[in-house]
What does this fold into?
Amino acid sequence: MNKQLLKLNLQHFASPETTFNPDNVTMQSAKTGAVPINQSTDIITQVKNGSAAMRLAKAVPMTKPIEEFTFMTGVGAYWVGEGERIETSKPTFAKAQLTSKKMAVIIPTTKENLNYSVTNFFELMKAEIAEAFYKKFDQAVFGGIENPYQFSVLKAATAAGNVVPETKNKYDDFNDAIASIEDNDLEPNGIATTRSQRRKYRATKDGNGMPIFNTATSNNVDDILGLPIAYTPKSSFGTGADAPLELVADWNYAYYGILKGIEYEILTEATLTTVVDGNGDAINLAERDMAAIKATFELGFMTVKDEAFAVVTAPKSVDPTSVTLNKTTLSLVVGANETLTATVLPEDAEDKTVTFTSSDPTIATVTPKQGNVVGKAAGTTKITGTTANGLTVTCEVTVTAE
It folds into this structure.
């Protein structure tokens, strides 16, 4: 018996409730999910363009959380003779594993924005999401701030001993940083820094009186001594004595990878401890009738050769090591005065402040900053000078009646 087969259009049987269209569904109805592909692609592109680390490092395609890849650590070379090739060195390859970590950023928004469709909402918010992602990524991989990775550029440079304290001459700073990498037969090819440093660059010239800093033309980027500059926000480098001012590197030994698209969750009841208002207070979404978007995506970062990286850090503070006075004893009559002068060494001590005190102001007073001693009554007292780091020196003062 012949059976008649019917062609059915299954679309006619699909429930509208089970068909998700980001153009038609509002954020109120889709509070979790994946960012639509077009907006996700746009955000990731903006992250790549905004992140100084991504602009400098090499990208590795990632299809799984731990991606193994091969990189070249040396090139092959050979002599060519008559009818033969004489090899002198072989290319060297090494394997590495790039591990992805999930990054999350939270951005406040108004509840009214949740009435937009999913597509329109992320079209509206994509610039803010991208900026939050690339700032957080640069903070982690440059300065090691809240860093989930085993690696950071600062960590690599420090491990290699390629740390250059800043001097008054930026030419010397960059020359030393570049040389520390070249000493390992590597070729520096870029600089990561902040725009706040440009004032110093513009004011610095090399030994021939030529500027070391070249402002970008329409076809290029800013450079120092021929190395292109990638600017990152000041927050990427952190604060403190060991925070980077510049990172110089052969960036062929830094790798990043992006595993997949961006997922999101809408928050309406949370207190945002990582986001504060103008008064520094945490934002309670319910109290302020606000919402927030929590966006997450996975990406990896690693460095594969510490010697390829160098860091210029803030100049190290030089503390006083000794303090002396021009007099160790002083004789005054009542009403007379004399000034004590302190000498603080070394010459390049950062803070040479000396504060003077009298052990008995009824016998003799002393001005705290100037060291001017005035006899008040017959007797003896001790004037002590104290440096900013606690070193002391004394002068015995004898006051006699007129």
User: Anything to note?
Assistant: The two ends are 141 Å apart (CA to CA).
